C-alpha cells in the first residue's frame, strides 16, 4: 500500500472527527431533558475532541498537515444534519439512529486505518487508531 493512502486516510479521519464534534455539540444543545443521553453525549464529545488532537499529533510527527477543506466539509455536513433533525418531533430517536450509524462508519474507518498503518510500519499510528477505535466501539455499544 502506498504511504499516500495512509496520509489521505489520516486527513479523512481528522475531518471525520471534526464532523463528529459539530454533530455532538448540536445534539447536546437539544437533549437536556434526557440526562443519561446528555451525559454520554458530553463524554463522547470530550473523547472526540481528544481523538482529533491525537490524530493531529501523529500526523504532525509524520509531517502530514490536516486538510482545511476536508475539515470544513465535515463541519458543514454536520451543520446540515443538525438542521435536518431540528424540526422532527422524534429528533432524539432519529439522532440516536444517526449517531449509531456514524459510530459504525467511524469504526470501519479506524479498522481500515489500522490495517494501512500496520502495512506501512507505523506503530504509533496503529496505537493511536486502536485507542480511538475502542472509544468508538464503546459509544456504538452504548447507543445500541
TrEMBL record:
Coiled-coil regions, chain positions: 6-65
Pfam families in alphabetical order: DUF892
Keywords assigned: Coiled coil
Top-level taxon: Bacteria
PANTHER family: PROTEIN YCIF
Name of the molecule in the record: Ferritin-like domain-containing protein
